Give the backbone structure.
Amino acid sequence: MTLLQLNKINVFYGDVQVLRDVSIDVHEGEIVSIIGANGAGKSTTLNTISGLLQAATGEIIFLDQRIDLLELHEIARLGVIQIPEGRRLFPHMTVLENLEMGSYAPEARTLKEKSLENVHRIFPVLKERSNQLARTLSGGEQQMLAVGRGLMAKPKLLMLDEPSLGLAPILAREIFEALRKINSMGTTVLLVEQDVQISLSMSQRGYVLENGRIVMKGSGEELLRDPHVKEAYLGV
């Protein structure tokens, strides 16, 4: 079943066109990666899906409903949740308070306790740090908290922008293992990640975005074997 569909999306920053006829499908239960160089338009794509940016033309369909004309909070309430680059935590609030902020929508509020149990099961350290201020956590723990807060919103589609940025390799692996677990529990994942090797290896499908255009798509394995991807993004 197609969960998300972007149809010929065009996005501008002022007079500069950033996305050009971008079309992407994400099927229910998948992990899908968008790869590309810095400035290719990856973050812009996620921000347009979540409603932070407005597409000039094209349409975005989520669960058979057009969402590109909706407000940001309306899109989130449908289950489209983005974990932004840089985490955007509330630094002077506790870990528990940050997690509870994710349960703002009525449906998520009714399931808050169960969601909190799931988050603690995936990230046990967050239970240990419940009363600690978010700003005092390590970088890896802060990323876990950002993902956990997203899970508290009961996402149908979880979008992540560079979740391993700034993390030591061992902490990055923990985050990716958590994403696999989250996906296995039924949450669809759309991933933008600088580590192309790991993002494609854990994805059913991927898209290559260059200069605002989709230039290639295929299964994660196909893209990892592709000579252009190897040369441009894997240094092979």
